[in-house]
UniProtKB/TrEMBL annotation:
EC number: 1.8.4.8
Protein source organism: Candidatus Sungbacteria bacterium RIFCSPHIGHO2_02_FULL_52_23
NCBIfam families: PRK02090.1
Domain Phosphoadenosine phosphosulphate reductase: 24-190
UniProt KW keywords: Cytoplasm, Oxidoreductase
Gene assigned in the entry: cysH
Signal peptide span: none
Listed name of the protein: Phosphoadenosine 5'-phosphosulfate reductase
Subcellular location(s) of the protein: Cytoplasm
Catalytic activity as recorded in UniProt: [thioredoxin]-disulfide + sulfite + adenosine 3',5'-bisphosphate + 2 H(+) = [thioredoxin]-dithiol + 3'-phosphoadenylyl sulfate
Involved pathway(s): Sulfur metabolism; hydrogen sulfide biosynthesis; sulfite from sulfate: step 3/3
Biological function: Catalyzes the formation of sulfite from phosphoadenosine 5'-phosphosulfate (PAPS) using thioredoxin as an electron donor.
Length: 225
C-alpha cells in the first residue's frame, strides 16, 4: 500500500468519525504524529476543534512551535489545563518529589485537564500508532471508552510519518532534530535511546519516556482512560 493510499484511508476514518460523532475534537500534542493528523483532519473538516493539554511543564520549544503551527495553519485550537484546585491537590500529594508511585507529576496533571472537557464531546481523534511501542500494537482504528476514539494513523509507521511530513513540506517540532525520538513534557522526556534493565537499547521510539519508573517507554495514563 502506498503512502498516498494510506492517507486516503486515514481521511476516510476521520470523515466517518466526524459524521458519526458531530461533537468531536482532535488531540494535538504538536509532535510529529499530531502534525500529520492535523493536516489530514483539516483536509476533511477545516474547522475541526483541536485540543492540547498544557500540564505546566511543557518544553518552551513546544509552546513556541504550537504558536507557530496555529498561525501557519489557522487551525481552531485551544489549550486545556487542570483546574487550580486539581493542581493544588496534585502538588500537595507529590510534595517535594516529582515522581510518586511510578507516576510523574506532569502526567498526573493530564487527567483532570482532559476530563474537564470530555463531557463536551462524544469522540476524539488521536495520533496513536501501533509501532510506537509494544503497548500500542493492538490499537484499533475506532475504539470505545468514556467517549469514542478514532486512531486514523494507527497503521502507519514512523518512517511513513516522516515521509509524509517531508513530501508535504510540513513544519515540525524542532526538538526532533535535537535527538528526541518522542516528545512529552520536559520532566518525563529524555533524548536519545534509553537502555532497559538488561542493558539493551529500547527498540521503540517511546523508550525515552517516563525514565526511572515502571512505566518507562509505556503510557502516561491518558490513553488508558
Amino acid at each position: 500500500m502506498t503512502l498516498t493510499e494510506k492517507a486516503e484511508i486515514s481521511k476516510f476514518i476521520i470523515r466517518h468519525a466526524v459524521e458519526k460523532y458531530p461533537r468531536i475534537f482532535a488531540a494535538c500534542s504538536f509532535g510529529k504524529d499530531s502534525r500529520v493528523v492535523a493536516d489530514l483532519a483539516m483536509q476533511v473538516k477545516p474547522d475541526i476543534q483541536f485540543i492540547g493539554i498544557d500540564t505546566g511543564y511543557e518544553f518552551p520549544e513546544t509552546l513556541a512551535f504550537a504558536d507557530r503551527m496555529v498561525q501557519e495553519t489557522d487551525m481552531k485550537f485551544r489549550w486545556v489545563r487542570a483546574s487550580p484546585e486539581a493542581r493544588r491537590k496534585i502538588d500537595e500529594s507529590y510534595g517535594d518529589s516529582f515522581v510518586k508511585n511510578d507516576q510523574y507529576k506532569c502526567c498526573e496533571m493530564k487527567i483532570p485537564a482532559i476530563e474537564s472537557v470530555m463531557h463536551e464531546y462524544d469522540a476524539w481523534i488521536t495520533g496513536l500508532r501501533r509501532d510506537e511501542t509494544e503497548h500500542r500494537k493492538n490499537t484499533g482504528l475506532m475504539e470505545e471508552g468514556k467517549i469514542a476514539k478514532a486512531n486514523p494513523i494507527a497503521f502507519w509507521t514512523k518512517d511513513e510519518i516522516w515521509q509524509y511530513i517531508k513530501e508535504h513540506r510540513l513544519s515540525y517540532h524542532p526538538l526532533y532534530d535535537a535527538g528526541y525520538p518522542s516528545l512529552g513534557c520536559k520532566p518525563c522526556t529524555t533524548s536519545g535511546k534509553i537502555r532497559d534493565g538488561g542493558g539493551r537499547q529500547g527498540q521503540f521510539e517511546r523508550a525515552g519516556r517516563f525514565a526511572g519508573t515502571e512505566h518507562a517507554g509505556q503510557e502516561c495514563g491518558l490513553h488508558l482512560m
